Every structure is written in structure tokens, then in C-alpha cells.
Amino acid sequence: MILTQENLLAALKMVRLPGARSDIVEAGQISRLDLSENTVFIEIQMSELNPTFEKSLRFQIEKEIQRVDANAQIAVEFRKIGAVTEEAKAPVTEKKISSRVATMIAVGSGKGGVGKSSLSVNLAIAFQQLGYTVGILDCDVYGPSIPTMLKVVDQKPMLLNGKIQPIEAYGLKIMSAGFFVEEGQSIIWRGPMIHKLIQQFVNDVAWDGTDILIVDLPPGTGDAPLSLAQTMPLTGAVMVSMPQQVSIIDVHKGISMFNQVKVPILGVIENMSHFICPHCDHSSEIFDRGKVKKFCENLGVSYLGDVPIEPKLRELSDAGKPFMLDHQNSSAGKAITQIAKRLQPFVKTYDDLKSNGGEEIKLVL
Ligand SMILES: Nc1ncnc2c1ncn2[C@@H]1O[C@H](COP(=O)(O)OP(=O)(O)OP(=O)(O)O)[C@@H](O)[C@H]1O
Ligand SMILES: [Mg+2]
After folding, report:
1. 112 CB under 6 A from ligand 1?
2. Smallest Cα–Cα separation from 320: which of 203, 204, 153?
3. Is 164 helix (H, G, I), strand (E, B) or coil?
């Protein structure tokens, strides 16, 4: 059966508080309940945190919801009542501003290895060069490459005033799943774990003051990117494709996924489009340059431009320094700046957000 607010609440009414007669809904202990497709996030407030109670409640909650939908992805979080009350005292606008950034752009693709992370980093610098305050959120839980590309691999974020402090490099605020996983360590990410991590990345990281947050997504259209697209308040998604048909087919799947979860597609980039010889400046059309533009025209989505193969970009990426810092006037550099400029109409700044009273800015396309 498909989960709805009604059957979800009915399921939760079956969950008894250990040692009490009332259920968790009746007892008013659910402080937050989010349902998006088959993903459920529940926050339970308790007067005292108690691991035995939590275990028993979590077990019952999962069991009752999975009775309705066996494939439901469930994340349950417990919060001490005092903490909730303190938070509730904060002025509403402040609370909203501190948990949001003005513009959140996801960089995705259907396929792996097409240059999402490289373009995330270099677009972030291009936006910075246009005068914005920029952050990067690396949501690639399977292969986080942003710490390597920005040379912050060994850094560990600190908790200050209840907020996770992003790592700073090249003037960018950075948060990555990679900061919490040892190199070489493999974690099996279940849907609810990803959901919880993303909630924390969006709500508990001190992003304040950020105009644009670039979100580097994992490849594919599986559980992880889907859950991310559903969970994050995205302004829209930028898709990256190489010119080959196999890449375009996968990008098409990626666009369908975003359409299903109502995330606007801001446009598509053709990366590694062609090769410009560093010696004679001749452009070699190694692949099938222009295919992505045609695809965009047929599908009615915006084409953002192409970025050539640039050996220096690959070399600097491995060395942990963004290519755009010193090479913004190269062909690839100009192309990336151009793409950032084409995205500017979608950008709202943090000042815009504040003057709007901190309300979420909805994109009207
Ligand atoms: N325009 C480019 N010119 C030269 N090399 C590039 C270019 N774009 C990306 N690369 C290189 O291609 C490789 C893959 O890029 P990247 O890691 O950014 O892809 P990805 O889509 O994020 O991959 P994954 O799906 O694994 O996360 C990297 O070595 C990167 O340096
Ligand atoms: Mg990547």
C-alpha cells in the first residue's frame, strides 16, 4: 500500500509508549513528521533520552510503518524536550534563515565519471569570482571526491553552538560525507541513513551567509540521489553529460527522476565536449560534440554550454586546487564562467533571503 499522512498516523497510533497506556500520537510526542514518497522522517521528543526506550520505540515504529509499506525508508530521531523548547524560543525568521541558504543548486547526471564533482568545484569558484558567497555540499556518500579536489581530506568538522562548522578552503564553505568516513572504509548506506545525514547537512551545518550552495550528487538514479532530491530544498538541478549517446541516455533518466520529484532542471552541460590542442589550438571533435545541445532542444530543456577536455583541469583536480583559480581565461575557464552567468537569473542572495523575512524562495519557471 502507498503511504499517506492518514495511514502513517494510523500506524503510529499503534505504537505504545513503553510502560504507558497511551500511544505516541496521543501523548503528543511526535515533534516532527515528514513524508515524502515512501521516505518517512520522524522526530520524537522525550523528557529524558533513554537508549532502551529509544530502541523499543524505533523497533515498534519501523514494524508498524512497514506493515503499511514494506519498502518504506524510515528515519527516527529522538530529541530531549528541553532542547526543543529552547529552539522554539528563537525568533521564527532567524530560525528559518539559519537553517537555509538562499540558492541551492544540485549538480547531477545519470552516469558516473562525467565530471559532476569537477564542475561543482569549478562552478563554485566561478560564482565566487562573480561576487557570491559559495558553499559546496558533497552528497556523494558512495565516493565523496570534493575533499580530495579541495585538499581538505584530513579535516574534521567541529561542533560550535550546536552547529556543525563547515570546513573552509579557497573561500568556500565545504561539507562532505567524506569528512565522517575514514579513507578506504566502506559503509553500506541504507535509505534512512542517507535521509538523516542529508537532514543534518541542510539543517545543522552553519551555512549562514551562504548565497549559493552547490550540491554534488552521487551518480545514477538509485535510492541515494532520489532521496537527496526529495529531501533537500533545491532551487533546481544542473545536469552534466558527455556527448556520447550512452551518457545522454542516462542523463535523460536523471532528468525524469528530478521531474518526478518536481525539482526544476536549470539546464544541461556538455562536459569533455572536445579537445583543444595546447600546442596548435586545433579543436578535435573526439566524441560527438553538439549532441547534448540537440538533446536539450528536443526535450525542451535549457542548454548551458560545453566545456572542453582540459588536461590541466584533471591535473589540478588531483592536486586539490580548483582549475578556475588561475585559469579562468583559458577556453575551459571562459566556458565555465559563461555557464555560471547563464545560471545567474536563478540565483537569490542571502540578503534577498533576509529581506524576504527568511521565507523559502520558490522558483517560478
Ligand atoms: N573538462 C574536463 N577536462 C579534463 N578532465 C576532466 C574534465 N571534467 C572532468 N575531468 C576528469 O574526469 C574525471 C572524472 O570527473 P569527476 O570525478 O568530476 O566525475 P563525477 O561525475 O563526479 O564522477 P562520479 O560519478 O564518480 O562522482 C576526473 O579525473 C576529472 O579530473
Ligand atoms: Mg563525483
Report:
1. yes
2. 153
3. strand
Residues 6+ apart with CB under 8 A from 17: 23, 24, 27, 29, 57
CATH of 5-89, one of 3.40.50.12780, 3.30.300.130, 3.40.309.10, 3.30.420.40: 3.30.300.130
Q: How far is the CA of 300 from the centre of ligand 1 (A)?
A: 26
* Residue 112: other Cβ atoms inside 10 A: 14
pLDDT 10s digits, 304-335:
999 999 999 999 999 999 999 999 999 999 99
Q: What angle do CA 128, 307, 198 make, to 5 degrees?
A: 55
Residue nearest to atom 15 of ligand 1 (CA): 115
Nearest ligand, measured from the Cα of 327? 1
Binding site membership of 289 for ligand 1 (Cβ less than 6 Å): no
User: Is the shortest distance between the CB of 118 and ligand 1 below 6 Å?
Assistant: yes
| 271 Cβ closer than 6 Å to some ligand 1 atom | yes
* pLDDT tens-place string over residues 258-298: 988 889 999 999 999 999 888 887 888 888 899 999 999 98
The pTM score is: 0.74
Distance 48 CA to ligand 1 centre (A): 48
Residue with cell 530531549: 80
